Amino acid sequence: MADGAPRLQRITDYPALLAEAWAQAHAPREPNAPTVISTFAGCGGSSLGYHMAGFRELLAVEWEQNAADTFRLNFPHVPLYHGDIAKLSVEECLQRAGIAPGELDVFDGSPPCQGFSTSGKREIGDGRNQLFREYCRLLTGLRPRAFVMENVSGMVKGDFKVIFAEILRTLKACGYRVKARLLNAMFYGVPQSRERMIFVGVRDDLGVEPSHPSGWSESTTADSVHPHFAEILRGGARDNWCDARTVFPTITKAAGTTSRTGYMSGGHFIRTRSGEERRPTLQEFQSLGSFPPPFAFVGTRADGVDRIGNSVPPLLMRSIARHVRTLIAH
């Protein structure tokens, strides 16, 4: 470790960490609590991270039915626009949130990233790659003090570097100083190795340079989350077992099959200390995704795994939200 570098903490009680974060999410808000609007909110992974960081969420935007139902169940007091973001005008967004342009603290969003994902076909012409323009349309109209936009690491690989550069130019043209950086959730308390591209922008007139939070935790291993985990299967190959004293592979959504080698695109399978080989339960995936146990999912197990796989891990977003809060505190 280099001199002056922050010392990474070892997480000795992961369930206690989740319980503490859940309590933070449900603590009374301060009168001057920072505000956030979350677009492409999914089931609320990012939202939960902001709540853990003490934010007051004014509005969430999500179109998928199961994700919206799950969000409503867990955030009953947050107004939800359930519909196509392209049909949400700036005026309606402001009215629903009860604010005027320039009053919002943070505008958050995770535009669909299937076209960028390294686990997908990586089609540069995928129409979902253009949904960030709807995010920018609202960003320009709302004029928040800062914004956070998340996407997958695949957007800076190969031909997608062109799209990445276009996204960066477009965000800056909205009137913001912008920095983008890959963050791995494993250094922010999440027991899985998962990189996300995080864009942080601060409004030009504030005179603040955007930055990202430093990692604070050593990698939290799978067996520290669930002591009965002995080995995990990576990539679906029968000879690709790894000791569970390592971070869990990225949680990806279900592939719709129950075959041992391909039931999930990430090949997730566990061998317990008693020798049992099985799929992780939804509750185990939930913990591995840093969703505290009280968080509830609607629908089938596959629905829940989809929601977790498509979410920004809440503990990762908690660190990002805390950091952005300090950037705009003055």
Characterize the structure shown.
The protein has 330 residues and is an alpha/beta fold. It has two domains: 223 residues, Vaccinia Virus protein VP39 (Rossmann fold, 3-Layer(aba) Sandwich), CATH 3.40.50; 70 residues, no CATH class. The chain is built from ten helices and eleven strands. The strands form two sheets. The chain has a seven-stranded mixed sheet, sandwiched between helices. A four-stranded antiparallel sheet has the order 9-8-10-11. Helix 5 links the parallel strand 4 and strand 5. It is globular. About 5% of the residues have low confidence.
Using brief descriptors, characterize the structure shown:
single chain, 7-stranded mixed sheet, 330 residues, 11 strands, alpha/beta, Rossmann fold, 4-stranded antiparallel sheet, globular
Q: SSE order in H/E notation? A: HEHEHEHEHEHEEHEEEEHHH
User: At the fourth CATH level, what is the homologous superfamily of the largest domain?
Assistant: Vaccinia Virus protein VP39
Shape: globular
CATH hierarchy class name of the largest domain:
Alpha Beta
CATH architecture verdict of the largest domain? 3-Layer(aba) Sandwich
* CATH fold-level topology of the largest domain: Rossmann fold
Mean pLDDT: 86
- The count of helical stretches stands at 10
The main sheet orders its strands as: 3-2-1-4-5-7-6
Through-space gap between termini: 32 Å
Outline the biggest β-sheet. Answer: 7 strands, mixed
Strand coverage percent = 15-25%
The beta-strand count equals 11
| Quaternary form | single chain
Uncertain ranges: 114-118, 255-266
Count structural domains: 2
Radius of gyration: 19 Å
- The secondary-structure class comes to alpha/beta
